[in-house]
Structure formats: C-alpha cells, structure tokens
Specification:
Blueprint (H helix, E strand, L loop, with lengths): L2 E2 L4 E2 L7 H9 L1 H7 L5 H4 L4 E7 L3 H9 L3 E8 L2 E9 L7
Antiparallel strand pairs: 1-2, 3-5, 4-5
C-alpha cells in the first residue's frame, strides 16, 4: 500500500524503476546536493568487515582487494584453501 497525501504518493520500488533511479543517483548535479558516496560501514555502525572466499577464486580475491580489503590469512576449510580478507572502518579510502 503506497504512502499517500493530497499531493504525493510513495509506493514500493518496482523493477521498472531501476534505470531511472540509477540515472538519478549517478547524476553529478544530484550528487552535489545528496553528498558523496556513503561509507556503508559508518551507515551501519560497523567497525569491521570480514570476507571469506576460496583462495583459488582469483577474481573474488581481486574484487575484495579493490574494495579495500586486505588478505589476513588463509585456512583450510570446506575441503579447499580459503582466503580471509578484512577491513577496518578507519582503513576505508575517503574521497
């Protein structure tokens, strides 16, 4: 059920809304008023995030590193080598 007033109606997002919402959120003028990128760790009040992936999954390891995470250790689990990555809130790159 949408939230509605005499001049406004807010309803749940639909799949058809995705493209215009992305276009709006990435528009330089809109970003100027909304502010820069949100640090999700601050937004969620997290001080640390840990991720685990198979060490043989090079693409996943590279993605975690691009996100600012660092390899902390490797372990043997689930019958394969696992890479444990972590990042502290203070280590997040700021623009």
């Amino acid at each position: 059920m949408p939230l509605q007033t005499a001049r406004f109606e807010l309803s749940a997002l639909q799949l058809d809304d995705l493209e215009p919402v992305v276009r709006l959120r990435t528009d330089a003028q809109v970003r100027r008023f909304l502010g820069g990128p949100v640090n999700g760790l601050n937004y969620l009040s997290l001080t640390r995030v840990v991720a685990e992936t198979q060490a043989a999954n090079v693409a996943s390891c590279q993605l975690l590193e691009r996100l600012g995470m660092r390899l902390e250790r490797t372990v043997e689990r689930f019958g394969a080598g696992q890479a444990i990555y972590g990042v502290d809130n203070s280590a997040i790159k700021r623009d």
